[in-house]
Amino acid sequence: DEGPLPVGRVVHIARQIARALSAAHAKGIVHRDLKPENVFLVERAGDPDFVKLLDFGISKLQQVIDGVEEVNPTKTGTTLGTPHYMAPEQAQAQKDVDHRVDVYALGVILYEALAGRPPFLTSTPTDLIIAILNAQVVPLRSARPDVPEGVEAVVMRAMSRTRTARYDTAMQLAEAYIDAVGGFAAVRSEQRRGLPTQAFGG
Question: What's the chain's Rg over C-alpha atoms?
C-alpha cells in the first residue's frame, strides 16, 4: 500500500519473516501461501514493523524417516497458493514441493516491497502462470534503480526458476540480503529515524 519501501526497512521485515519460516520449516511445515496479505506488521514494544506470519491453512508437512525426506503429498494437478507468489513447481502442481517454495515466495515479496510492484504483470491468471513458468523477470534495478546491485542479485536468486538454484533456507536468503546492504548499517539508519534499539535485536 505504501509503494516501494526503504532498503533498510526491508532488512528488518525480511529477517523476521525468515525466522518465522525457519521455525516452521524446522518442524517440517511448508507454508505454501506466503504473500504480503499473510505478513502482518503490528506495533509491539515500540516496533511498528513487528512481523506476525499468518494463515498456515494450506501448509504441508514434511518428515524425515530413516534419513529419507517423506512429504505429505498434494494430489498431482491440485494447485494451491496465490499465483503471484507461486514457485514454478507449485504452479505446475508438482506433488513434491518443499520448503523452497517459501524461499521463492519470500523473494517475490522482497521484489515487490522494493519495486512497488510484483515481478510479473499480466492481464489474466493463465497468463500469469505462463509468465512464472517461462518469462524472464524484469530486473529489480529496472524498476528501482537505486537498489544496490548486490540486493538485486539476492532477490533474483531467490526467485530462480530452478529450486536448486535458490537459497537452501529462508535464513540464508535473509542473511544474504543483510550482507548485500552492508550488514546492519541499514538497520542502524532506521534506528536513527527514531525506532527503538530493541526493535532491531541489538
Answer: 17
Helix (H) or strand (E) run with residue 64 in it: strand 60-65
Residue 77 burial (10 A CB sphere; 0-12, 13-18, 19+): exposed
Give the catalytic positions in this structure: 33
Q: State the cell numbers at 120.
A: 510479473
Per-state percent for the chain, helix, strand, coil, to nearest 5: 50, 10, 40
Has this prediction a pTM greater than 0.90? no
Q: For 108-154, what is each residue's pLDDT tens digit?
A: 999 999 999 999 888 888 888 998 898 888 899 999 999 999 999 99
**Cβ count within 10 A of residue 179:** 12
| Cα 147 to Cα 11: distance, rounded to the nearest angstrom | 13
